[in-house]
């Protein structure tokens, strides 16, 4: 991913390298040359304005950066729409945990929360998980901020602390999460995660272990690559074994027996040691989830000082794309009956292989523009493309750079790829959207820029 790009779209100086051609009449109501309302791009960030979101009011400030495209996705909750492929994955995971892990009274050990609001505080999203104040994951260029104190959650881990504080020691959290990201078939600003957490007391962890009565959860030592400073090696290894065994059973339930699995050491601020699970699927190693032993400082701050635990997180889209052979992440937002009907199955464990819808080839356009000298992130440009081009845009990538030898202004040339069109109407509307995008960017450049090179 290229990290040098656009934060203030209004300051971009553009020239068009190659225009779309062969545009026919479409059904868009807005005139291509008309100046768009501010809502075309983002929730207004001016101080004094208020955003109404999910029944609550949030004052706007200079941190507010929600695009119209992203706001239109809030509340859709694809993971709760019956027979949607993401719902199928969620239900299969729930079924597995309900059947495999039963409490003392025959009820499921794990509670499931799949309707928590995606609007969280920055403390919930970062500080509760021990993410440092200067950590790059907090950047405005990578997150969707409602204002300086609230945001759309970047991960379902944002709810960990609250649920632990409420006294829960085994739970799953499912929900939509939001991150500003590049445009290609694998990335979308909204996706869905499933989070799992389980805590153990000394009795629960060491029951059935030889001489378990003499073993301890905690000690005061030094941190190493293998354990935290407050955990004993015995407790860490047992917890790690239980975590990996739990997740191996889960992916075996999803993918079937005989699956090759490997564990890769990694880093997360809220777990240590931490791991990623990779599976060998059709001869290719694919990362499917991250996990680890929860940082004891987090567990202690939530009031569970006498317990230790593990946590994992997985992406529902990632699993669904692998299991159902879905090639493009945008398809999950499709309301096309030809897509949705493929997943209306009588048994959630029934095998489904996605059948492509499109018969039209991809359409490619190039656009080039000058960059301002500062305050520019690539994800702002991607948000603008998604807002104007919608889900017809499959991929945008940098194909060339040019720095003026005298002014030192930098020009980027971006390739905008539509992907295969589902219908002829889509193809026509794509061309209209591309010209609409160029016109809007041109208008906003004129109103804010010193010069326009060429249009």
UniProtKB/TrEMBL annotation:
<dbReference type="GO" id="GO:0000049">
    <property type="term" value="F:tRNA binding"/>
</dbReference>
<dbReference type="InterPro" id="IPR036690">
    <property type="entry name" value="Fdx_antiC-bd_sf"/>
</dbReference>
<dbReference type="Pfam" id="PF01409">
    <property type="entry name" value="tRNA-synt_2d"/>
</dbReference>
<dbReference type="GO" id="GO:0005759">
    <property type="term" value="C:mitochondrial matrix"/>
</dbReference>
<feature type="domain" description="FDX-ACB">
    <location>
        <begin position="358"/>
        <end position="450"/>
    </location>
</feature>
<keyword id="KW-0436">Ligase</keyword>
<dbReference type="InterPro" id="IPR002319">
    <property type="entry name" value="Phenylalanyl-tRNA_Synthase"/>
</dbReference>
<protein>
    <recommendedName>
        <fullName>phenylalanine--tRNA ligase</fullName>
        <ecNumber>6.1.1.20</ecNumber>
    </recommendedName>
</protein>
<keyword id="KW-0547">Nucleotide-binding</keyword>
<keyword id="KW-0067">ATP-binding</keyword>
<keyword id="KW-0809">Transit peptide</keyword>
<dbReference type="GO" id="GO:0006432">
    <property type="term" value="P:phenylalanyl-tRNA aminoacylation"/>
</dbReference>
<dbReference type="GO" id="GO:0005524">
    <property type="term" value="F:ATP binding"/>
</dbReference>
<dbReference type="InterPro" id="IPR005121">
    <property type="entry name" value="Fdx_antiC-bd"/>
</dbReference>
<feature type="domain" description="Aminoacyl-transfer RNA synthetases class-II family profile">
    <location>
        <begin position="175"/>
        <end position="356"/>
    </location>
</feature>
<keyword id="KW-0496">Mitochondrion</keyword>
<comment type="similarity">
    <text>Belongs to the class-II aminoacyl-tRNA synthetase family.</text>
</comment>
<keyword id="KW-0030">Aminoacyl-tRNA synthetase</keyword>
<dbReference type="InterPro" id="IPR006195">
    <property type="entry name" value="aa-tRNA-synth_II"/>
</dbReference>
<keyword id="KW-0648">Protein biosynthesis</keyword>
<dbReference type="InterPro" id="IPR045864">
    <property type="entry name" value="aa-tRNA-synth_II/BPL/LPL"/>
</dbReference>
<dbReference type="GO" id="GO:0004826">
    <property type="term" value="F:phenylalanine-tRNA ligase activity"/>
</dbReference>
């Amino acid at each position: 991913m290229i990290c040098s790009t656009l934060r203030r779209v209004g300051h971009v100086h553009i020239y068009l390298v190659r225009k779309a051609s062969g545009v026919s009449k479409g059904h868009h109501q807005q005139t291509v040359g008309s100046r768009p309302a501010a809502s075309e791009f983002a929730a207004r960030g001016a101080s004094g304005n208020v955003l109404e979101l999910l029944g609550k009011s949030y004052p706007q400030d200079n941190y507010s950066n929600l695009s119209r495209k992203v706001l239109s996705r809030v509340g859709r909750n694809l993971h709760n729409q019956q027979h949607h492929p993401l719902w199928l994955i969620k239900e299969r995971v729930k079924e597995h945990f309900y059947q495999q892990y039963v409490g003392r009274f025959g009820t499921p050990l794990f509670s499931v929360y799949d309707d928590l609001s995606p609007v969280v505080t920055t403390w919930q999203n970062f500080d509760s998980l021990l993410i440092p104040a200067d950590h790059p994951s907090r950047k405005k260029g990578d997150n969707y901020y409602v204002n300086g104190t609230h945001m759309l959650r970047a991960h379902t881990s944002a709810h960990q602390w609250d649920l632990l504080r409420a006294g829960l020691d085994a739970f799953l959290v499912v929900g939509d999460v939001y991150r500003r990201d590049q445009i290609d078939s694998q990335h979308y600003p909204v996706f869905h995660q499933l989070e799992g957490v389980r805590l153990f007391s000394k009795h629960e962890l060491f029951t059935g272990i030889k001489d378990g009565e003499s073993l301890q959860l905690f000690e005061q030592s030094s941190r190493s690559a293998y354990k935290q400073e407050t955990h004993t090696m015995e407790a860490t290894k047992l917890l790690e074994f239980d975590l990996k065994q739990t997740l191996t059973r889960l992916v075996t339930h999803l993918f079937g027996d005989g699956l090759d699995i490997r564990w890769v050491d990694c880093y997360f601020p809220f777990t240590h040691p931490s791991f990623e699970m990779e599976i060998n699927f059709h001869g290719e190693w694919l990362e499917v989830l991250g996990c680890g032993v929860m940082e004891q400082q987090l567990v202690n701050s939530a009031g569970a000082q006498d317990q230790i635990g593990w946590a994992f997180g997985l992406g529902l889209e990632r699993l669904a794309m692998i299991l159902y052979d879905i090639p493009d992440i945008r398809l999950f937002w499709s309301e096309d009956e030809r897509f949705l009907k493929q997943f209306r199955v009588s048994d959630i464990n029934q095998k489904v292989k996605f059948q492509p819808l499109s018969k039209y080839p991809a359409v490619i356009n190039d656009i080039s523009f000058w960059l301002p000298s500062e305050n520019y992130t690539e994800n702002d440009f991607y948000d603008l493309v998604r807002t104007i081009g919608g889900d017809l845009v499959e991929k945008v990538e940098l194909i060339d750079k040019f720095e003026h030898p005298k002014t030192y202004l930098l020009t980027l040339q971006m390739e905008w790829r539509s992907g295969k069109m589902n219908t002829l109407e889509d193809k026509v509307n794509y061309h209209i959207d591309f010209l609409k995008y160029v016109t809007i960017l041109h208008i906003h450049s004129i109103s804010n820029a010193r010069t326009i090179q060429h249009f």
